[in-house]
Design brief:
It holds the Pfam family Fn3-like. The protein is an alpha/beta fold. The chain contains 15 helices and 26 strands. Strands 1-2-3-4-6-9 form a 6-stranded mixed beta sheet. Helix 3 (67-79) crosses helix 4 (90-105), helix 10 packs across helix 14 (439-447) and helix 11 crosses helix 14.
């Protein structure tokens, strides 16, 4: 197909097209944030783009990543005439991204992994230079993108920032070298909106968005004439775009399938709403349950306090933000769940004394608290009192806990890690992260026991702000006349729970990575480590439901490397059991690949397997280890 294209047709695909954008830019119905123009002579359809890291109101990927989530998002995008979706620790990200990519692309929508690479702050994201060494890039930051590559992701987006002094979207070391050559990425790279600073085909950029300031036909033709760009490089960029379109089935559709009027369709279905409810509950994490107060008993007087009415939080802000036309508020979810068997009374929480009195008079006090984040801004604190207009949340929870802590349940809605200074003063805590449009029904399903929680924390909830002691040089970076800042990644591999394990920090009010309780209990036994035929190891063990109700457990495998490797304690496997009845057990086997026993060698610029004694820890979280064993490898450093 590329061979049959004229040069003009090829160049038209290397930048954004205003068609389909400017005509509705001021209209709330304008759904496409960008396009690549069609080549009608060859029946090549347009690429119509939508932001969607949160989807059309499904739970945040942080909590509910699965093939179902990806398929649901992809179907809604396709039904609205969009065929490209712009979406976002190392091993966890590597595993979680793959079913999402496959799910999205199964619906004739090209998934987009972003932002490549080191877009790890918003404060100075436009122009900050991320100063990060090669080993840290490959071990900490590339694995989620590598997982996307292995799942066949069709497109990636380069970021606004610089990497080691070069703009991300014109960085030949990270784009053409690391991404396209070392990681063997076969899809195309497009810029974030306005992140192109030069005609960067030779560096590895394939598409400029949203327009054609640098990657226009005139400048590319000048570069071709001057010999700084080869036509084979242009062909490679076009091939990558077309390959992604063929891969997901876009090219099988007639041009009429991409009629722009589709963007105004309401594509919400009963099935997608049910999926949003199911996934929101599936992604909820039970952090605390003293005295087994949960699940709640129906037929009681329940005080619902806080962000549970129209002020409830469903999603974060930024380019992927969508205002749902229909939502299930927590207050309505509770009223529907309780029905005529009990009473539900509401207090917004601003009048702390009134909220305390209501809590004291009720059988249960369920407090809804939360905070927000959005594109362009970093949270100035992990406190609940930053990010929303109710700045007295911690005061209210503490006061209610002091008066009625034994019957107080707190629901925390948050975009990520958050501080919970009152956590040991209340009976129960759940977090539903960004729960989506079915938040109310889903949280009622959890709190009343229709669904037994099985979620685990994908991040550490710290005891205090900056507990890992980042310096200003690390974040937000040191100002420099040539750029907003230089941010130095001197923490290297010591990110999140790895730092907590290395320094043995204890949790007084926070919660560890991987933590998540159930309404039942689980025992681990029979740990066995054996060689596998690929040169790695198989770690087998048994998980048994020792409680009184059905439930599922996410078992986690952590690896300790030989000291010579300089590697921290880290997650290297996890698996979720089936729903186990009381007394039932199941056998699990997790594979450690040779790659999992390797480090990035900066001399050879490749992975190198390590020899020595490894420690294997299996358990329910990074701090709840149930089984431990060692094995040795005979490979020498």
């Amino acid at each position: 197909l590329v061979a049959n294209m004229t040069l003009s047709e090829k160049l038209s695909m290397l930048h954004g097209s205003p068609d389909g954008r400017t005509e509705c830019m001021d209209s709330p119905g304008c759904a496409y944030v960008g396009n690549i123009a069609p080549v009608e002579r060859l029946r090549i359809p347009p690429v119509n783009m939508n932001d969607g890291p949160q989807g059309y109101r499904a739970p945040a990927a942080l909590a509910g990543t699965s093939t179902e989530w990806g398929q649901g998002m992809g179907k809604e995008f396709y039904d609205k005439g969009s065929n490209l979706q712009l979406g976002e620790d190392p091993y966890l990200g590597y595993r979680l991204v793959q079913p999402v990519v496959r799910g999205i692309q199964s619906q004739k929508v090209v998934a987009n992994a972003k932002h490549f690479i080191q877009n790890n702050q918003e404060t100075n994201r436009v122009g900050v230079s991320a100063e990060v060494d090669e080993r840290t890039r490959f071990e900490m930051y590339y694995p989620p993108f590598e997982g996307a590559v292995q799942a066949g992701v069709g497109s990636m987006m380069c970021s606004y920032n610089k990497v080691n002094g070069d703009w991300s979207c014109e960085n030949p070391f990270t784009l053409r070298g690391d991404l396209k050559q070392t990681l063997n990425y076969q899809g195309y790279v497009m810029s974030d909106w306005g992140a192109t600073h030069s005609m960067s085909i030779a560096a590895g950029l394939d598409v400029e968005q949203p327009g054609a300031f640098w990657m226009n036909a005139e400048l590319i033709q000048e570069a071709l004439d001057a010999g700084t760009v080869k036509e084979s490089q242009v062909d490679d960029s076009v091939r990558r775009i077309l390959q992604a379109m063929f891969q997901v089935g876009v090219m099988d559709e007639p041009l009429s399938a991409w009629d722009w009027s589709k963007r105004l369709r309401n594509v919400t279905t009963a099935a997608s709403v049910a999926s949003a409810r199911r996934l929101s509950a599936k992604g909820t994490v039970l952090l605390r349950n003293e005295g087994n107060i949960l699940p709640l008993t129906r037929g009681k007087r329940v005080a619902v306090i806080g962000l549970a009415d129209a002020k409830a939080i469903y999603h974060a802000g930024g380019s992927g933000s969508v205002q749902p036309s229909s939502v299930s508020t927590p207050l309505q979810g509770f009223r529907d769940a309780v029905g005529d068997s009990g009473t539900v009374e509401f207090n917004c929480g601003r009048d702390v004394n009134a909220a305390v009195e209501l809590a004291k008079q009720s059988d249960y006090a369920v407090i809804f608290v939360g905070t927000l984040s959005r594109e362009d801004f970093d949270r100035s604190s992990l406190s609940l009192d930053v990010g929303v207009d109710w700045t007295g949340q911690n005061e209210a929870v503490s006061a209610i806990a002091a008066a009625a802590g034994e019957k107080t349940v707190v629901v925390v809605t948050t975009p990520g890690a958050v501080l919970l200074p009152w956590s040991r003063q209340v009976a129960a805590i759940i977090t539903n992260f960004m729960p989506g449009q079915q938040a109310g029904n889903a949280v009622a399903d959890i709190l009343f026991g229709n669904v037994n929680p099985s979620g685990k924390l994908p991040v550490t909830f710290p005891n205090r702000d900056n507990e890992t002691e980042f310096s200003p040089a690390q974040y937000p970076g040191i100002p420099d006349p040539k750029a907003p800042a230089y941010a130095f990644y001197t923490e290297k591999l010591q990110i999140g729970y790895r730092f907590y394990e290395t320094h043995r920090l204890q949790f007084q009010t926070g919660f560890p990575f991987g933590h998540g309780l159930s309404y039942t209990s689980f025992a681990y036994s029979n740990l066995e480590i054996r060689d596998d035929f690929r040169g790695g190891k198989t770690v087998a063990f048994v998980v048994k439901n020792t409680g009184g109700r059905p439930g599922a457990e996410v078992a986690q495998l952590y690896l300790e490397f030989p000291a010579s490797a300089g590697e921290p304690f880290q997650l290297k496997g996890f698996a979720k059991t089936k729903l186990l009845d009381a007394g039932e057990d199941c056998s699990l086997a997790l594979n450690l690949r040779p790659r999992d026993l390797s480090i990035w060698d900066t001399d050879k610029h490749s992975w190198r397997q390590i020899g020595g004694v490894f420690g294997v820890s299996v358990g329910s979280s990074s701090r709840d280890i149930r089984l431990h064993e060692q094995f040795s490898t005979n490979i020498f450093v």
